[in-house]
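We modelled the chain as a single entity of 269 amino acids. Its sequence is:
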Amino acid sequence: MSRFYDINAGVPQGSVLGPTLYSLYTCDLPKTNHTLTATYADDTAILANNSDPSMASFLLQSELDQISKWLSVWRIKSSASKSTHITFTLRKGNCPEVKLAGEPLPHSDSVKYLGIHLDRRLTWKTHIKKKRDELNLRYRSLWWLLGRKSMLSLENKLLVYKTILKPIWTYGIQLWGSACNSNIEILQRYQNILLKSISHAPWFITNREVHEFLGMPTVKQEIATSCSKYKIRLDNHPNLLAQDLLLHSHKRRLKRHAILELDETFASC
């Protein structure tokens, strides 16, 4: 055991009071009326939207300038290289560059925020492919348990799949469940392969029969069930802001035939 030392700055990593003290320390993070600031722990996202790309970047830059001053006052070092600037639009081209503490934010066509991969067209194609790759790596490490040569019982194989593999692709399903059928089928095809391997099903058995035999819902059925339960939770949520998510909004999911195309800039710091 090491000796005790006094902490002159910061808090021990993993401490019980750490999250509470961080929230108190950053509760006065500057905000403007023309941008939306979303924070979760130490992940901060700032969004600005406008039909004019230059104006969207101007609104975002205005808040970033205030944040830069706030960081300087409270002696927090900013890192533009660890932040991302992304434009959500169906149009070609990106919004003008924005800077944090004089350093330009790197622009990207996709960004990861709270485990969700957001692409510029909001098609969820990038997120689903990332989850497909993650599933592939995890399945390879569990091949000795889930493969056709495994002596593990079928019941335990399903238990491993439900507790380890399934949560990988069901995370955020209430959001990416709006993806088009071609993207959803990427996960469905992979689940078909996994379930056939788990159940030792021969090649002539259909995927529908395998799902029915194992009592496993399809990806689309899982989306419908999860979204329905999520809506009920929001209806009964004590927080009025959560209930407001169910209110009808004029903003729509990005589609080519949409009458109004909105350009949005997104910065994650």
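As a brief sanity check on the tokenised model: The two ends are 36 Å apart (CA to CA). The CA atoms of residues 126 and 166 lie 18 Å apart.
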